[in-house]
Design a protein that fits this description.
Number of domains of chain A: 2
Number of helices of chain B: 12
Strand content of chain B: under 5%
Helix content of chain A: 25-40%
Radius of gyration of chain A: 22 Å
Oligomer: heterodimer
Strand order of the largest sheet of chain B: 1-2
Structural class of chain A: alpha/beta
CATH class of the largest domain in chain B: Mainly Alpha
CATH superfamily of the largest domain in chain A: Periplasmic binding protein-like II
CATH class of the largest domain in chain A: Alpha Beta
Structural class of chain B: mainly alpha
Number of strands of chain A: 11
CATH topology of the largest domain in chain A: D-Maltodextrin-Binding Protein, domain 2
Radius of gyration of chain B: 23 Å
Helix content of chain B: over 70%
CATH topology of the largest domain in chain B: MetI-like fold
Distance between the termini of chain B: 38 Å
Distance between the termini of chain A: 65 Å
Largest sheet of chain B: 2 strands, antiparallel
Order of helices and strands of chain B: HHHEEHHHHHHHHH
Chain lengths: 271, 296
Amino acid sequence: MKKLAMMMVAGITALNLAAGTCFAEKIVVAGSTTVLPIAQKTAEVFMDENSGVDISVRGGGSSVGITALIDGNCNIANSSRSIRDVEIQKAASRGRDPVAHIVAMDGIAVVVNKSNPVSKLSKKQVRDIYTGKITDWSQAGGKPGKIVVVSRDTASGTFEAFGELIMNKEKVVPSALMQASNQAVAQIIGQTPNAIGYVGLGFMSGELKAVEVDGVMPSNATVLSGKYPVSRPLFMYTNGKPQGIVKEYLDFIKSKRGQDLVEVQGYVGLK
Amino acid sequence: MNYRRIKEKIYKWIFTVLAFSSLFFLVGIMIVLFKEGTPIFKDVGFFKFLFGTRWYPTHEPPDFGILPLILGSIWVTAGAIIVCVPLGVGSALYLNEIAGFRQRQFLKPIIELLASIPSVVYGFFGMVIVTPFLQKTFNLPTGLTALNASLILGLMATPTVCTIAEDALSYVPRSFREASFAVGANRWQTLTRVVIPAAGSGISTAIILGMSRAIGETMTVLMVAGGAAVIPKTFLGPVRPMTAAIAAEMGEAPMGGDHYHALFAIALVLFLITFVFNIIAEIISRRFRIKLGLSG
């Protein structure tokens, strides 16, 4: 009886292994939650068209993705920031060679509640709000009311991009509500009349109102042309030059159709 | 015969291994926490880490002061206690002393059901219902506050407190109550002067375990506490408890960097706090059992 049970377990395990290795070519994608929707959508379509390919897409964050790539736990690392020197060194010490592929552009929209009359801010005003120099909307051309500053967590790629593009290395005021995801920021801005926040263009919705930054409204055109000051490239990293099925998948993302999907997800395509 | 003995031995071994596996995991977790957490003390200094008031882990140069996070945890936990002690102990008293058999059979599972609601559901409830409510009621800039987290955590800790307090009350021997009634005490006097003092340490255990539950809760505080790493001054302002900081930042902290080690060090601090809570609870409940003449 016991023997039989053990044989069954062994048999099932062997079957699973066989199914995993023989019947499908597998790509593991992990990393930035900002790039996640792009990876998911393109993976879906790519898998539909190429039976026998299995792409598993995970989030976790830019650093998680790059760490997984260095450790050999994924084929593609999504990242909303470029790789850091420490990470390159670590990769080199393990004999890996991360190669960057820009898959889309992302604008970071500065957003307020839709009831807020403020429609334009200068880069400096945004910075002053986030450093705590401006604390009331009346100081920024709005109705009097204490500004509720909402920011992404200091470790997120979006925060890093915002920090570089807006903050000039200054610190965000400690009373800012630090949120773990774009959705959380959008949720708070939607229900808080005096809040200000920032989200990736892909997360804009009817509840939010984007403001002009330095006189430029965030849009696909202004992000791609570089006119909108708060925009950044999104990356996928591979170990060495991509080959085989990984190359095909990346080529698909960069193709016209892949970039259309990028736009469907609310990001800015490369052309 | 021989076959049987071998079989018995094998079973014994299997269960011994299973029982000790928890110990194995506990020790493993402790080793990892110490190994990954302590390097930060070399760079920052133990006291500067614990009592620093600024948490800017990714800034250049970074600040690793976790006092706002520790205080954030303590505030929401204290608030949760204020909510869950009356609710939990009160329901336990009602269940044990006043409710009839039928009511008890009906109410107890319902209170315990509160414990089975996933914390993300509580968090969602707090975010969508409680937040706008607090915002309007107190005319706040934002409803994501320590008060919000306290209310929800208190509700979440209530079943823990209620169940354990109820057990403690039911351990009070019948003879205690009968003796009290025999000398002419009424129900209220018996409850406040005999039953509650007799079950007191058991109730304290319940409260401490409720505190453990509240301080370790992560998803809910991540969603409703606001997440601002400030030293709290009022329950109506946002806070960033330790668990929320770890959960929010771990995914993005480069492995092996200072920030990564700092988050492990926070986990270590949190672990030590709940560890102490649980040891205190264990000591009190052991005394309680001795006092009532149950097994030591």
